[in-house]
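My current task is to audit a protein record that another person submitted. Alongside the sequence sits a line of tokens, each denoting a local backbone shape. Please read both lines and tell me whether the tokens look consistent with the sequence. Do not assume that whoever made the record got everything right. Thanks in advance; the entry in question is below.
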Amino acid sequence: MADKAVQNLKHSTVSAVTGMKEPKAPAPSENAIASNTSSVKPGNSRQGPATNAYMTEVLDILRVLNSNANVQNERIEKQEHLFNEFMAACNEPMDDDGTYDDCYDVETEHEESSIESEQKSIFKQLSDKFYQHEQVDVDIHPDLASLVNNSFRNGISEHNLDDICKRIHRPENCDSLVKTRVNQGIWRLLKSYTQAEDAQLSAIQGVVLKASINMVKLVEKLGTSESEHVELGTTAIALLGHANKMMNTKRKELHNQDLDYKYHYLASASLPYTDLLYGNDTDVNNNVREINNMNRIGKVGRGGPMRGFSWGRRAGFNPYGLRGRGFRSRGRGNGPFRTEAFPKN
């Protein structure tokens, strides 16, 4: 009897959830009713709690089924919504040329690109704020740019350098486009490592002069063309000429370490140079004579040097093999410039 009641409860609950009507069972006969009634005894009242437990379990199962059904319905609704959107997009009107109207996509892409470019512009402004960039001009031909970059980064081989320099000759009336040589009298006073360093600077100077010669010839050919091209060439010549002067000044400064302090004036950048680094020998002799005369005048004014005083840059320093206590009087000691190095006229 209890099992039948549970089954009846299941059918009624399913009907309530699904909305379906339970099929009607055939009406029991009077004999069946009497039999069922007679089968129920007072001692069977203990089956009531078991029936309640069955009913609770059935209700829990039905609740789970109901929840799963709701979730499934929501998924079906979402799929229907996506399908309707897809069908609506497929049914959009077409243009006259038979293509779909994709203005919406173009506008969206344009807006996205505008946002990205704006962000890049902001980042570039921040970069320019914290880092100083070199100001550059417009690009040149890629092949020419490659030649320039390769030459200034890697240079050329020694064989090609010698071959190029041999084929470049200065104009006859450009006497300044030659390497400056060290005056013979001063060259003898330089130490071997100083002479080696000077030879390296002289080689660099020779390459700069060869480039200057070609630039001069190029400007000569552009003399009748537009003034802008000539201005570029003449500016390059001026810069190359200044670089040549800077190298000559650097070479003089290099020699100072082997010369007596009082003769450092000869290395002054204000003194002109010719094809000889210190000017003509006559000019050098005159400058040396003036320096010696000024030193004699200074000694007379001071009353001569103190006993034990050395004219070197420090105690015991004597770069030219001078003996005694320095230049004490006329004709004493051997100065750095000898008469045979700079003959008198």
Q: What stands out?
A: The CA atoms of residues 201 and 247 lie 7 Å apart. The longest helix spans residues 48-90. The chain is about 60% helix and 0% strand.
